[in-house]
Amino acid sequence: MTAIDTLKLTDKRQEISKIMGFDSAEDILEHYPSRYEVNYLNKKEEFIKGARVTFKGKVIGPTKYIQVGFKRSVVRFKCIDQNDQELNCTVFNRPWAYQQIKEGHEVIVIGTVDGPGRINVVNYYIDKDIKDILGIKPIYPVKADVTQAMIKSLIKHVRIKMRGQIEDDIPLSLRKEHGLISREEAINYIHEPKNADEYKRALSRLKYEEFLNFYLALYMRQVPTSFKKAKSFSLDKINELISGLPFKLTKDQLSVIKEILIDLKSDRLMMRLVQGDVGSGKTIVAIIALYANYLAGYQGAMMAPTEILAKQHFTSVSELLAPLGVNVALLSSSTKERKVLIKRLEDGDIDIIVGTHALFSDDVKMGKLGLVITDEQHRFGVNQRKRLLAKGDDVDFLLMSATPIPRTLASAIYGDMAISSIYTMPSGRKGCDTLVIYQNKIDLVEGEIKKVLREGRQVYIIASAIDKSEVDGMVDAISLYEKLKRVFDPYVTGLLHGRLTNAQKDVIMDDFAQNKIQVLVTTTVVEVGVNVPNATCMVVYNAERFGLSQLHQLRGRIQRSNYKGRFFLLCDGLGEDVKKRLDVLANTSDGFRIAEEDLKLRGPGDLLGTRQSGLPSFVLGDLLNDRMFIDAAQRDAHMILANSDRDEYQKIIAKAKQNISDSLG
Ligand code: ADP
Ligand code: MG
User: Fold this and answer.
1) Ligand 1 nearest-atom number relative to CA 253
2) 461: CATH
3) How confident is the model over 50-91, as pLDDT tens digits?
4) Cα Rg of the chain, angstroms
5) How far is the CA of 229 from the centre of ligand 2 (A)?
6) Which of 303, 315, 531 to mutate to test the pocket of ligand 1 (most atoms within 8 A of CB)?
7) 142/132 Cα distance (integer angstroms)
8) 129 C-alpha vs ligand 2 centroid, how far in Å?
9) Predicted TM-score of the model (pTM)
10) Distance (Å) of CA 308 to CA 339, 355, 513, 559
11) CATH of the domain at 46
C-alpha cells in the first residue's frame, strides 16, 4: 500500500480523494471505469434517427439564437460534415454556444440524430485536437461534485507518480502460462485503452488476479481436510432398505447415494453439498446416509431450519428407520424433557437426533457422533463447521440445499466442498401450470381455486406481510384470511404466520396436513421443505416482491403428488422488469436455470438472501460469465498452496494473508 500523502497531491486532489474515499494510491489506481464511450467519426449510413453520432464539420452560415421563455434557449447552426452531409444542429439551454460557434469554424460534435439532417447536440468542441475527443473514453463512477475531468486527471497523476513502482504479485511463471500482461500495463490499459485489444488484455489480467486472490484466501481460510476412521457398514442392509421403499429411486438419487457412501467409507471427512430442486427427493438420500452411518456404529444428527421442517423430517426418518431398530428422537426448542434427552444422547442411547439449530448448543454432546446433515441451509459458515468438528472426531458432514446455486457461485461460497446434484424429478410428477396475473386480486382465479377445492385438493395462499402495519401497499395475511374465509366457505380456511407460537403453528400445520384445513393463508414460513402432497394449488400475492428462486421454492410445495400443480402469481406491477422476471418462472421449471436468471437480474445478494455472509464481491470478475478465469484461478490457487515454500509464491501468499485479516478485522 502506498499512502496517499506520499503522492504530493494538490489540495483540490486531496479533497477529491477524500470525497471518493480513497486511502491509498492503490485505491485510486483500482478505481476502474464503469464503462467506456467510444467516439469515432461516423459513416453516412450510421446517421439513423435516435443514433448517437460523432462528426467533424465546418460551420456554414450564421449561428442563430432563440430565447424560449425565461430560462430556456436554443442555439442553431448548420454545418457540412466529413461525409459531406449538411446537418442542422441544435444546442439546448447553452446560450454561450452562440458566442463560441461562428461561421467558418471547425467543430466536432457528439449528438443524437433527431431526424434526417437534424442533430441534437450533446457536446461540441471547437479548437480541439481531434485526438482528444475521438477514441475510447473511460467513464468513472463518481460521487457528489466530483466530475469526470477531475477524477481522470487525479488517476492520471497517480499513474505517472507510480510509474515503475506498481508491484506485481502474480508469479511470473503463471503470468507466462496464461499470457497475462503485467499489473502496471493492465492498470494503464484499463484507464486509457487505445483499442479494444488493450482493454481486453487489461481485463483478463485483472480478472484473473481478482479470482486468484479470492480463491487463495478462501482455500487458506478453509478447515483443512481432516482424517477420520473409515466407516464400514453392510451394503446388503442398505439395499434392503432401498428395495422396501414405496417408490423406485431415480438415477440421480442413486448416484448421489453412491457418492455419499464412498465418502463415508473413506478415511477423509466428508464435506458434501447435495443440491436438487424442491421435490427432487433429497430427504430419502439423507435418510440412507443416516442409516449407513448408524450401521457403522455411529450416531447421526439432522438439522432443519424450522421447527415445522424438523418435525416433518423426524416423522420421515422414524417411519423408515424405527422399524429397523433405530432409535430416533426429536430435539427442538419446545422439547419438554430436554435434560433427559440430552443425557440419553450423551449415553449413546439415541441413534439419530433430528432438530433445529438447538442441536448446536454447547450442552448437546453426543457419545459417538459420526454424521451431521443440515437441510435447506445455505448459510452454513466456516465457524459453524468448526463448532461441528469440535463435537467429534469422525463427524462427516452433508449439506442439503434446494436453492440450486449455479456451480460457479457454489464453488465460490463453499470452496472445496464436493457437490452432488439431483437434476431429475421422480417420474410420475405432473409438473405445474404457472400463470402470472397482473393484478393483485384473486378474483380472476377464484373460479379455478374453487374447482381445485371441489376436486378435493388443498390450496396455499401466500402473502408477503403478516399484517397491515408492515409495508405499504402489500396485501397482508391477516386481512386476507378474514376475507378469504368467507369467499371459500364452506371450505375451512386457516392462518399461519411467523408470529404464532410454535405450538400454534404445529396445530395449524397438522390440521392442514390432515386436510382439516383446505385453504391455508400463510407467509413464507412454508417456503422451506414442508410436505403436504394433497396441496396442489398456490396463489402468491405481490409476487413482484419475491426473488425468482424463492418463488420457485414455493412452487415446489405444490408438486409433491401425481396431480398437476396450479401456481398463480398475482402482482401489482405492469412493469417490464416484473414481467420479464416472472415470465422466466412461467417458462421453465429448471431450478438451476432460474437461479442463474435470478443471479443475472438481481445479483448474488438477492439470490442467497442479503444477509449471506462471506459472499465475495468482485469489481471486474463475474461469477457467472468468467468460468475460464475461475477455473484457472482455482487450479492455480491449489498449486500455489501445495508449493507454498517456493520463493516466487511468497508475495501473493502474503497478500492473501493480508486479505484474510482485513476481511476478519
Ligand atoms: P426435497 O428434495 O424437496 O427435500 P423430498 O425429499 O421431500 O424432496 O421428496 C418429495 C416427495 O417425493 C416425498 O414425498 C418423497 O417421499 C417423494 N419421493 C422421493 N423420491 C422419490 C422417487 N424416486 N419416486 C417417487 N417419489 C419420491
Ligand atoms: Mg427437503
Assistant:
1) 23
2) 3.40.50.300
3) 998 999 999 999 999 999 888 889 999 999 999 999 999 999
4) 32
5) 29
6) 531
7) 21
8) 66
9) 0.62
10) 22, 10, 12, 19
11) 2.40.50.140
